[in-house]
Amino acid sequence: MAIQSFSSGQVLTAAQMSALQANDYNQTVSAKTTSYTLVAGDLGTHVQMTAATATTISVPAATFAAGDSLFISSLGAGACTIQAASTAISVNGSSLVLAQYGGGTLRFQSASAATFFSGGAAQLTVNYLVIAGGGGSGENSGGGGGAGGLRSSVASTGGGGTTETSLTLLKSTNYLVNIGAGGASKTQGSTTIFSSIQATGGGAGANRTAGDQSGGSTGGSGGGGGGSVTGTRLGFAGTVNEGFAGGNGLNILGGGGGGSGAVGGNAAGTTGGAGGAGSSNNITGSSVTRASGGGGGCETGTGGTAPAGGGGNGGTAGGSGTAGTANTGGGGGGGPNGGGRAGGSGVVILSFPTAGNTLTVGAGLTSSSTPSCANTVVTITAGNGTVSWA
């Protein structure tokens, strides 16, 4: 129960005494599911936030007195931030962001100043770019490989999705990283993982085999449709918020693989479909385009081209398609006659405040680190292992 007021000479009932004693050992819980501003009645209680998305608990001025305190916790997956409700009060603490199962005591030094004493590991906020391996292309007028799925908390993510939320992570805790390989000929790319973020491997481009397509697949971005003796062969779907669908094949022309920024081009005339556009991202401090689809192959005309972003160009008669570029998630370029080409491998790029944070990259991972203004940017290009901060 909240703190009570009593008058001089008042006689307490047994129920009141029991309630007061119970609160010493089992605080009254005030359950919240959306952002909330504390009120005077919260004094001495336990304010418990349960939300799947980010929330705030605001601390007002002139509501609590020196020595007052209450407990705050978070049970939901969304980060809960303790903040001042106005400039009339200061709220300090080593960590004012509660991850799931975090909690601590808010204690007031005055009506205009409070400190949050967090129970649990220190935290930090990490921005990320996670790209999966690109899909391999088809052969014999094959469709271009789809780009690896792209997810990011900086600029837009793939598939036309909105920018994702930064991760609030605990220090002294290991987080899994796995860099997805590019798919071989006619093979989907592999998933890339960072903590709870997973990007889907790019879809494989389809073959032209005995007048029909085979081997193509959906993915982060979908593979392009293969050529056929006559008619259209449809491209394959991408994954929502990661990438777009592949383009259609036509006659002896392969469709372009889907990109993270746009659908793959349809084959037309005597030219294979162009690869779908990649996505520009400035997590490193400069804008770089990644995760474009591979161009479709063509036996007698011109192979489809791949735009900027690591996708491979489709092959033309007498030549061969090109593979996707490593660490871009680009799709492989479709083959005109021979085998398809591999997609580019994926990548994980992390950005976090330099001050007070040191990253340890575990064995099994290949990485590099560069400063970017007040942040450190770490690029992980290969392997499987863990990372942790101190």
Features:
390 residues; mainly beta; Jelly Rolls; 2 domains; 10-stranded antiparallel sheet; 6-stranded mixed sheet; 1 helix; 24 strands; 3% helix
Notes on the structure:
This protein folds into two domains: 14-120, Jelly Rolls, CATH 2.60.120; 122-390, no CATH class. With 390 residues, the chain is mostly beta strands. The radius of gyration is 28 Å and the shape is elongated. It has one helix at 14-25; strands spanning 29-32, 36-37, 46-49, 55-59, 69-74, 80-84, 90-92, 97-98, 103-110, 113-119, 123-131, 150-152, 167-170, 175-178, 192-194, 197-199, 232-233, 249-250, 279-281, 288-290, 347-353, 359-361, 365-372, 375-389. The chain is built from one helix and 24 strands. The strands form five sheets. Strands 11, 12, 13, 14, 15, 16, 21, 22, 23 and 24 form a ten-stranded antiparallel β-sheet that branches. Strands 1-3-5-9-10-7 form a six-stranded mixed β-sheet, with no helix packed on it. The chain has a four-stranded mixed β-sheet with strand order 2-4-6-8, with no helix packed on it.
Percent strand: 25-35%
Number of helical stretches of at least 4 residues: 1
Order of helices and strands: HEEEEEEEEEEEEEEEEEEEEEEEE
Residue runs with pLDDT of under 50 for 5 or more positions: none
Q: In angstroms, what is the radius of gyration?
A: 28 Å
Termini Cα gap: 39 Å
List the domain count as a whole number: 2
The gross shape turns out to be: elongated
Largest sheet: 10 strands, antiparallel
**Helicity range:** under 10%
Average pLDDT level: 90
Number of strands: 24
Helix/strand class: mainly beta
